[in-house]
């Protein structure tokens, strides 16, 4: 995700455009939109399984806890790639990282088709996570540089809106398209992957055609994993990111299955729409948050996320789909604002020389939020009903949000 920034983003933003860039060229303008589409397709591919998990469960007979394991493997892949390869495009070039990242996703798509068992699902999700971890970092920086080369005198508004739409919008689009295909097209565990494999191959062609924005240094720096630095001032922002990622993790792991079993709406299209709604609300809120003073975004995001969780819990207790959807949309909007604010706070607080490490630390904490709470939720489903487990989950998140709000 996950999401619309990367560990080297603010460092890149302080650098001038490469001397070799054709400032203001139409080619860079076209490349900006091509990379945005590639970004959206790659992130959409990563969420295809979300509305399909109930079908996998029915086919292989595994539990909700196993779903959380499969989901956690993906998050681990993202973290590993982010720390080991998320920063190397700064000197090897954007395309030379994007192309192998897309190749990993294509390999994952082939595995989804050829090895549909639980083991194959786990391996494919790990490859997907590795590809997304490499791609999110690189594509975000690439979009910024192409935007600057095309519109050197313009503000960064277009970049911010498009990158947020490609990232969170892509995550939501994947669930919606997969749910639609699973509902109305034959072979629901195969057709979505075939469609996206075609799109990923076309994405490789697009990346091969766009101009590079990084000039390789005469002497390449010695490789080392991305350093992670976080000061005490960043801990509150990181804690907010943890809860935001936990909300997104809930809606791409167990929530689609809960809609089918707990709320008695087995439609696969609806399962995809639930996750899409949360991500779309987050992307829209991130764009709208630019109209709000930066100092107010963090508390607004926390408050909206908390209010959404309360409505979500009410929908579970009342077994009301509409309340559940409204709560998810509000919580997703709050999570989107909260994460955007956390990135801004940490980037502003860190010295320029340590900004990349500070943001890497934020992503590490964020993806821990994507993994640990969802795993805990999966363990809880082994002992209590899914409704009870999800109510505990929302209660713990609410309590954590209240503590963060008091220390903001």
Automatic annotation (TrEMBL):
Keyword Glycosyltransferase: no
Localization: Cell membrane
Topology versus the membrane: Multi-pass membrane protein
Domain Major facilitator superfamily (MFS) profile: 30-408
A GO term for molecular function: transmembrane transporter activity
One CC-aspect GO term: plasma membrane
Domain of life: Bacteria
Entry keyword annotation includes Cell membrane: yes
Annotated transmembrane regions: 30-50, 62-85, 97-116, 122-144, 165-187, 193-214, 235-258, 270-291, 298-315, 321-339, 359-383, 389-406
Principal location class: membrane
Keywords on record: Cell membrane, Membrane, Transmembrane, Transmembrane helix, Transport
One Pfam family in the UniProt entry: MFS_1
PANTHER family xrefs: MAJOR FACILITATOR SUPERFAMILY MFS_1 (PTHR23517:SF13), RESISTANCE PROTEIN MDTM, PUTATIVE-RELATED-RELATED (PTHR23517)
Protein name: Major Facilitator Superfamily protein
Organism, scientific name: Paractinoplanes atraurantiacus
């Amino acid at each position: 995700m996950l999401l619309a920034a990367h560990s080297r983003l603010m460092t890149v933003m302080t650098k001038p455009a490469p001397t070799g860039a054709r400032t203001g060229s139409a080619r860079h303008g076209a490349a900006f939109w091509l990379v945005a589409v590639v970004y959206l397709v790659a992130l959409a591919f990563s969420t295809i399984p979300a509305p399909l998990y109930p079908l996998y469960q029915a086919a292989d007979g595994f539990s909700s806890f196993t779903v959380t394991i499969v989901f956690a493997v993906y998050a681990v892949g993202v973290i590993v790639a982010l720390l080991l390869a998320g920063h190397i495009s700064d000197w090897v070039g954007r395309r030379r990282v994007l192309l192998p990242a897309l190749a990993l996703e294509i390999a994952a798509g082939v595995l989804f088709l050829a090895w549909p068992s639980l083991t194959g699902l786990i391996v494919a999700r790990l490859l997907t996570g590795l590809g997304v971890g490499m791609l999110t970092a690189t594509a975000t920086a690439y979009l910024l540089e192409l935007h600057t080369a095309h519109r050197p005198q313009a503000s960064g508004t277009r970049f911010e809106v498009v990158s947020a739409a490609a990232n969170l919008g892509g995550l939501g689009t994947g669930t919606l398209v997969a749910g639609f295909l699973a509902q109305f097209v034959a072979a629901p565990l195969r057709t979505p992957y075939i469609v996206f494999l075609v799109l990923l191959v076309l994405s490789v062609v697009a990346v091969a055609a766009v101009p590079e924005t990084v000039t390789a240094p005469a002497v390449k720096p010695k490789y080392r994993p991305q350093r992670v630095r976080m000061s005490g001032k960043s801990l509150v922002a990181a804690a907010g990111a943890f809860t935001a990622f936990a909300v997104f993790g809930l809606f791409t792991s167990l929530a689609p299955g809960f809609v089918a079993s707990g709320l008695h709406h087995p439609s696969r299209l609806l399962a995809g729409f639930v996750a899409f709604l949360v991500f779309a609300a987050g992307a829209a809120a991130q764009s709208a948050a630019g109209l709000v003073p930066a100092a107010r975004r963090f508390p607004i995001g926390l408050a909206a996320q908390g209010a959404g969780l309360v409505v979500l819990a009410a929908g579970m207790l009342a077994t009301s789909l509409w309340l559940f959807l409204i709560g998810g949309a509000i919580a997703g909007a709050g999570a989107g604002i909260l994460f955007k604010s956390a990135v801004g706070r940490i980037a502003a607080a860190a010295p320029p020389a340590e900004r990349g490490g500070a943001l890497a630390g934020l992503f590490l904490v964020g993806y821990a939020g994507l993994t640990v709470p969802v795993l805990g939720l999966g363990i809880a489903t082994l002992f209590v009903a899914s409704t009870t487990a999800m109510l505990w989950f929302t209660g713990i998140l609410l309590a954590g949000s209240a503590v963060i709000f008091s220390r903001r």
